[in-house]
Structure formats: structure tokens, C-alpha cells
Amino acid sequence: MATMHERSIVVFGGTGFLGRRVVWRLRKAGFFVRVASRNPDRAHRLFGFDDPQLRSVEANIHDEQSIADALAGAYGVVNAVSLYVEHGRETFHSVHVEAAQRLADQARRAQVEQLAHVSGIGSDAGSSSLYIRKRGEGELAVRAAFADTILIRPAVMFGPDDSFLTSILKLLGRLPIYPMFGRGLTRLQPAYVEDVAEAIARALDRKDVHAITFEFGGPRVYSYEELLRVIAHEASLKPMLVPVPFAVWHTLAWFAEMLPSPPITRNQVELMQVDTVWSPEIPGFEDLGISPRSVEEILQEILRDQ
């Protein structure tokens, strides 16, 4: 069993795109960190664990007892578990609602002081999109179970090993004619994943512990077409951007979902129909003393390293 420590934080989803960066940022901030995952070997490969203040614990978000064991004696917990494609028993409802509520319940029972729950800008329990709706229901379930939850809502995140910016970059390089989602008018405010991870660490390091929602968007709002043109310009590419109606994308995605690892899903198409822009009345990066880095800046670093 873990011993009580006011600076120990358990990170669920700590081997993921955002989660592993949260782990490093928490360590940098002086926290003891437990990486809770179903695959401790993966955590060992990622983090090495020469650091005595960094541990790997086996835990399954679908199992109450393993969550309780992972949380024993912890000061805080981060839920960075996410699912983008449903498969078998891993559904948006089972992960984003049931498991999130289970973790919040166990955190309350373990008298954990801080819970940071990662959701996303635009999460809405009233949405017609299954993914967006379950994200919204998850937020409500977590807040009901753990009153002082810190809700973390990032915009679409980017980084050197993402499935967003680097995918667009590869496709723009390969396709002389690039099919756009709709007319390319959807508004996006991409956030650098390292900035979001730093923000989570700072949010957990605050002295005032009360319910709060943060939204994290990058320094610039783009239309989807503008973003494509910025990426193409930085990479010295000149593709022809062609509008493709969302109805066509939905049909293509429906067929794609029959493949073992679909290149696109209907939920991703639905996400591209919704603006994901930070609401200035909600606390964001500035409130935590962070100046977010731009897509252009990180793109230049990615291209330099290629």
C-alpha cells in the first residue's frame, strides 16, 4: 500500500499522448507520481523509473478495487484516459462516463483532495454527436461524484507525435489535391500538448481547492482552411484544397469503420463540424501564467527534426 504523501498524484492514462507529458510536468513541479495503467511494462519503457519519486502501478479504470488500490494515500489524481474509436466493451459511455464516475467516486472515498478530469472544449451532454455527448455526460457525472473537480477542457491538441498536425502534414505532402472537411469554415484553436500538460500541473499546484473549469486554446483561432494553408506554407507545399461535403465524409467514414484500424470515423467527422474555440469568460492559460505556443512555432521545430 502507498503511504500518505501530500505531494503524491496518481495519473490514469499516464502513458497516453497527453498523460505522459502530465507525468513529466508533475515530476518537474516536485510531485511524487504514480502512473496507473493496465500495462505497467509500457510505463516502464516510457519513463524508465530510475526516479524514486516515479512509480508504475497496475490499475484498470473498469475495476473499483484496482482504482482504490492505486489511489491509496494519494493527494491528487488526474484522469487523462480517453477513447476515440469504440471497440468491443470499450465504448464512449463505458470510458468517458462510467469509468470517469467510478474514478471520481473512489477518489472521494479515498479522501483525495484534488481531481483533475480531462475532457474537451465543446463537450455537451445535449449534443447529437455520441462522442461529444458522452464527454459532456462524463463531466456531469464526475462533478456529481467529486464536487471540487478541476475540469480540463483542451482544444484539439498538437505535438510532434500527434495524430492531428503530423497527419495533416503527411497528407498534404502526398496529395496534390487535398479534400477538406466541408467548406473549411470550422473554427479551431489548436493547443500545444506540452502547454496543456504544464497547465494541468499548475492547476493541481494551486492552494485554493475548489471546483473550477479551465479551457485551453492556443494563441490563434483558424478556420480549418486557414490552418491547412498555414501548415502547407510552413512545409513549402502548394496543394489544391477541395471542399467535400460533410455528408460524403460521413459515408466514407461509415465504410472506413469496417476496417480493423479505420483511417477516419464518423465521430471524427462530427467533431470537425463543431467549432472548438476557448470561451474568454472561462479561465485559461493566462490564469495559470502560461503563454501558449503557436502551431507555426512547433511546426518549424517538427520540420527541422525530420
What topology emerges from the helices and strands here?
Blueprint: E1 8-12, H1 19-28, E2 32-37, H2 40-47, E3 54-58, H3 64-71, E4 76-79, H4 92-109, E5 114-118, H5 130-145, E6 150-154, E7 157-158, H6 165-174, E8 177-181, E9 187-188, E10 191-192, H7 193-204, E11 212-216, E12 222-223, H8 224-234, E13 240-244, H9 246-256, H10 266-271, H11 295-305
Parallel strand pairs: 1-2, 1-4, 2-3, 4-5, 5-6, 6-11, 7-10, 8-13
Antiparallel strand pairs: 9-12
Helix pairs in contact: 1-7, 3-4, 4-5
Number-wise, the strands total: 13
Strand order of the largest sheet: 3-2-1-4-5-6-11
- Percent of residues in β-strands: 15-25%
The helix/strand series, from N terminus to C terminus, equals EHEHEHEHEHEEHEEEHEEHEHHH
Sketch the major β-sheet.
7 strands, parallel
Q: What is the gyration radius calculated from CA atoms?
A: 19 Å
What is the tally of helical segments? 11
The coarse overall form would be globular
Rounded mean pLDDT is: 91
Secondary structure class reads alpha/beta
Report how far the terminal alpha carbons are from each other: 45 Å
Pick out the low-confidence regions: none
Q: Helix fraction?
A: 25-40%
Q: Oligomerization state of this entry?
A: single chain
Structural commentary:
- With 306 residues, this protein is of the alpha/beta class.
- The chain is built from eleven helices and 13 strands.
- It has helices at 19-28, 40-47, 64-71, 92-109, 130-145, 165-174, 193-204, 224-234, 246-256, 266-271, 295-305, and strands at residues 8-12, 32-37, 54-58, 76-79, 114-118, 150-154, 157-158, 177-181, 187-188, 191-192, 212-216, 222-223, 240-244.
- The chain has a seven-stranded parallel beta sheet with strand order 3-2-1-4-5-6-11, with helices on both faces. Strands 7-10 form a two-stranded parallel ribbon. A two-stranded parallel sheet has the order 8-13.
- Helix 1 packs across helix 7, helix 3 packs across helix 4 (92-109) and helix 4 (92-109) packs parallel to helix 5 (130-145).
- It is globular and about 55 Å long.
- The protein starts with 7 loop residues before the first strand and ends with a helix.
